[in-house]
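Q: Mind making up any chain with structure tokens?
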Amino acid sequence: MFDLALIRRRFEVSFRFARVWLPAVGRTVRAIEAGDPEQVRELAQLLSVLRATPSVPTWMRDLMRRVEMEARVSLSALAREPEQLDRAVAMGEAALAAPRTSWEAEALDRIALAEALSNRFEQRAEPQDVDATIDHLRAASELCDRRESADRPRLSLREGLRRWNRRFPPRKLAYDTVQWPPMDEFMRSQLLCRLAVAYHTRFQALSAVADLQRAVIAIEQAEALSRTLMWAVSTNSSGYGKHRGVVLSQLAAVLVIRYENFRDPQDIVRAHWYLKDADRLMPRRDEESAGLARNRVHALVLQAEALSRPGDLDKAEAVLRRRQPRDPGWLPQVQIALVRSELSGTAEGLDTAVHLVESLLAGADPTEAPDLLRWLGVLLWQWAEVEEAHPTRPDVDAASPSSSATGLWRRSADAWRRLAVLESAPAWRRLAAASLWTQFGRHSGAGPAERAESSSLAVRLLPTTAWRGLDRPDQEMLLTAGGGGLATTAAAAQLDAERPEHALELLELGRGVLWSQKLDADTDLHVLREHSEELAARLTSTRLLLERTTSPLPHVADGAATGFPVARAPAPAGGAPSKDAARRP
């Protein structure tokens, strides 16, 4: 009548699940969050041993494998062991090659493999990794869509309210028939959010505008799911307000990026309303609150600038009083001060913002210095323009030379000079800074020797900026946007400084960047390739990684969002970027 062997088997599985398997998984997750490499390594090895135990059910073995993959991905960053990433990717590929137990298991395996590939792309900048990440996430999303009507009964309002009142009871675990955790609506929305992040990553790295549009579509689908009753009562969703607030914040962030590239006011208005709802839903002390604060302040500042509404800046300051933004915490204050000055035509708040950035620069490390110098240059630029327009304002101490228009132009030129010679900054950013150093040198009364030095540096940065790891269209766009007229300006400055031989040299260098690269295309890495093709390929990928901190050249029609001049703000003579382009990331 009773199968005692089956009962004993299920009791043993339940006991091991509660006392051995689940605690091992939980300890591993906590070790990853704590960032302890030795503990992560030890627990990853433990999971590997437990997975080999014959008594482990299939769904538990799959869960252990995914958590072990996550541990090895974390270990690659914590212990600087890139081979751990390769092992995690190999585990994911082997899981997909094995017989599939269920569509849910395949979808979760693809998500885990995509996470490993995404992290490997961040470390090595190999384009095939981000392509594979997107392919796996799309395949997982398509699996969910295909199975939606066949496998999922529609949830009635009565059943939904019953689950809500019972506070999301966990599903019962059977031996081999139930996938855990279940692939419910909450997990599907998280999958779409990951897909949107992957599209955005490829947009930043490869400058394909179509990927930005796909990111918006994916995150809009996730937001639509978060409005359903099935999403609200999902087993994995422990806090409706928090999780919906995160989705709304991510959607708004992507819309802000699209606004910065296409300047469609509808995008920034939509982003503002989504962030307003997210601010209402998300608890103030939640760990995601910092990201929400940063996104909302940025959107309000852009909306104030686009619609000429100073009241939005007051709302941004109110957000900062309620929530602490994610690092860098100084940036929202600087953005608010700059846009307020542009809208009012006064220097209100600029002196405080300049003092804040200068104090941070005193103790900044090489990774923080480029952004600080860039914003210092832009703030002083705006302040100098205000001083030129209103030279007799009563709130300015005329006795202070550094606060006069000429002194401010001088200080701004010095900030751009420091950025131009900073080797830790991206080459395209250094080129823009050198161009502005040349331009502002004329405003501040710089001598012929300084103008010759700044323009010469700008021309010599052209080959580094348009290096051969970029596609030919990107190289040509960089040279046109960042280097237009630089060679002739530099030659004229050399003649003013009575250096005619240098003038000819800079003219030749400026006009022959791509031609000289074509001639030595196979010589730079020739010796290295003779010894190791793999090392030569990795060196090329590392160069690309160093230069892609933020992609300067999305392929946008009519020259919008190039990181140099944009359509609505033409560049000054000599190839220098506009103020709007200079302050953009």
About this structure: Confidence is low (pLDDT under 50) at residues 164-178, 549-574. The radius of gyration is 28 Å. The chain is about 70% helix and 0% strand. The CA atoms of residues 338 and 382 lie 7 Å apart.
